[in-house]
Amino acid sequence: MEHARSLPPPHAPAPSRWKRWLGRFYISGVFWYRFHHFGVRVLPEWAMGPLLCCFTAFFFLTLRRIRRAIASNLEAVLGPCGRLERERRIFRTLHQFAWCLSERYEQFGTGKRIESALEGVEHWKVLEERGGGFIVVTAHVGPWEAGAAVPGALRGRTVHLVREEEMDPAAQRFIEGLVARGDGPPLRTHFASADPLLGVRLLEALRSGDVVALQGDRPRADGGTVEAPFLGRTLAFPVGPAALARAAGVPLVPVFVFREGRLRSRVELRAPIVVRATGDRDADVTEATRRLAGEVERAVRVAPHQWFCFAPLWAGPGSRA
User: Fold this and answer.
1) In sequence order, which ranges of 223-304 are alpha helices (DSSP H)?
2) Spatial distance between the Cα atoms of 206 and 27, rounded to a whole number of angstroms
3) How far apart are the first and last CA of the chain?
4) Based on the number of CB atoms within 10 Å of its own CB, is 292 exposed (0-12), middle (13-18) or buried (19 or more)?
5) Looking at the structure, do residues 150 and 233 belong to the same domain, yes or no?
6) Contact predicate 217/28, CB 8 Å
7) pLDDT tens-digit profile of 193-246?
8) 296 touches 139 (CB < 8 A)
9) Contact, 313 vs 76, CB < 8 A?
10) 193 and 152 in one domain?
11) How far is it, in rounded angstroms, from Cα 96 to Cα 92?
């Protein structure tokens, strides 16, 4: 069923004039999704590495806006650098992104499994003893979708995965079908659209003991935000995860996934964030959101080249915290 599409999130890459001319062959068009999925299904293992290097080089040369955004954002993490190091940072980030995308298609489309080493399992034990639902919050770091299924796999619960809308509706339908065919734990995909009932459905899922998995590092165009210290600057973070957790009376559980090698990842489970429920709702949500921002910053510093943010977060040198 079609639903109302929301405005593009402020952290989404700005489309160029080529989008109208190229249509589905534009970088965000469904052609590249299907082509990538087809490639990982037919390529022999020995060809994966060389071909991904070639495609990384192609997009490195053509995606100028994204290159500038990567370089600008990484400067906040790694500091200023010369021209050669700047280009190396960009290529390394795009290459990591290519591998994460390819292994996502392998995971959901070919049955291959990503071997995951879990850290912080003791936090899940606390949640198991507590019972009830909870919210897994991650960020655009590494193969984040692999982490969304971890809590469901540990207890066999349904995971409600909330994704950003794809820029191309046909690409969105393709991804939704691909994820639905996966053989992991029960997974229901929701898209962060303008649908006013989405929050109600997620609240009901949490109250029934399910898990909601979403990204907590990028606000929607029409969503509330909190300014939080981030990488020595300030950045707007969405209040949605903390507000939903407070309304449902469940904790936020930061989970980050780092790609460690070919079909290998490390899943880092962090201590749950309990959102207070005092008489001051705004203060409660702000406090929890800023704690979550600190966890996202920590993850970005651990693997800066697996931080996939392709729009500039700060127009100039950045606001200092």
Assistant:
1) 240-248, 281-302
2) 36
3) 44
4) buried
5) yes
6) no
7) 667 788 889 999 999 988 898 888 988 767 789 999 999 999 999 999 999 999
8) yes
9) yes
10) yes
11) 6
